[in-house]
Every structure is written in structure tokens, then in C-alpha cells.
What does this fold into?
Amino acid sequence: MTLQGKKPLSLLTFACAALVAAALFIESGAAPAPPTLTPEQIIAARQASLDMSAMTMAEMKTAVTDGLDVKKQFYPAKTLARWANALPTMFPAGTGQGTTSAETHALATIWTDRAGFEKAAAAYVAAADKLGEFAKDGDSAGFASQLTVVSKACDSCHGDFKQKYP
Ligand code: HEC
It folds into this structure.
């Protein structure tokens, strides 16, 4: 076989490789689409987190009434504080009552009085953060009274921004 006979094949191979490389380049250069959630998915995620908050509170209340070492409550307290920080972001516009097919108890005041809602959430963050500090210090008395403060932060926000169950 002569070199000349091989040439067309080599060119073809080169051309194919170049095409594949070009395709890969274009592919990797394209910006990935940002993640999107539907309003229904956001409502479902926040409601599940809020239900888990109630369970986390119940766990900590049991620890207090059973006289357990509050140092072990640092993790639930800190987790509650992390969620408290994320809470307002889970209430974007368009996730209120009547805007989707999902059932929600989020009142319109969340959006008409956004500053008030953010303030209620910030009070919750501060209360939960402090609860974590009492847990870290192993201060059972401080932890017990701070747990009441956190509970009041839940109720206070619910009073203004959450529809009561009939
Ligand atoms: C800043 C306001 C705010 C704070 C603070 C807050 N919540 Fe709520 N919570 C809401 C709103 C608004 C809803 C209604 C959400 C919905 O139905 O979409 C809700 C709903 C709930 C629900 C019902 C969820 C469901 O399945 O429908 C539970 C349980 C709950 N909260 C527990 C708590 C607990 C426990 C705390 C405190 C540890 C707390 N929340 C703190 C605003 C708040």
C-alpha cells in the first residue's frame, strides 16, 4: 500500500476528530440552565421543613422535661437556626393562596408587609441561635427558658402571617 492510498482516509479521520472536538467545545461552552422550581415545589419544600421544625421542637422539649444533657441538643438547635435563615427565601412572590393549585396557609400579609415578615424571621433566627449557644454551654436552665422564647417566635409569626386552622 502506498502513502497516497492512505491519505484520503487520514484526512477523513482528521476531519471527524475536528468535528467532534468542535462539538465538545460548543457543548462545554454553553452555560448550564439555572435550576428552577415550580411554586408548588417551593410550597411543598417549605411545608415539609416547617413540619420538621415542629418535630425538632418536640425533641428538644422532651430533652428538657426528661432532664437530658442539653449539650446533645446543640445539633437540633443549630439546624433550626439554619432553617430560620432560609425561611424567608422559601416564600417568594407567587406562592401565596390562590396563586397555585397547592394548599397553603401563607397569608397575603407575607408580601404586603414584607418588612414585618422578615423581622419575624430575623427574631426567629436570633432566638434559635441563642438556643444553640445555651446548648453548647450545657446550660440547662438557660436552654429551657430560651426554648420558650423560640416557641413564642414561631407563634408570633404564625399570628400575623399564617392562616389559622379552622
Ligand atoms: C417568620 C414566620 C414564621 C416563623 C418564625 C415560623 N413559621 Fe411556621 N409557618 C409560617 C407560615 C407562613 C406557614 C404557612 C406555610 C404554608 O402553608 O405554605 C407556616 C406553617 C407551619 C406549619 C404547618 C406546615 C404544613 O405542613 O402546612 C408548621 C408545623 C409550622 N409552621 C411550625 C413552625 C415552628 C415549630 C416554628 C418555630 C420553631 C415556626 N413554624 C416558625 C411562618 C412561620
Summary: The pocket of heme C is lined by residues 43, 46-47, 50-51, 53-54, 57, 80, 87, 104-106, 117, 120-121, 124, 150, 153-154, 157-158, 161-162 (CB under 6 Å).
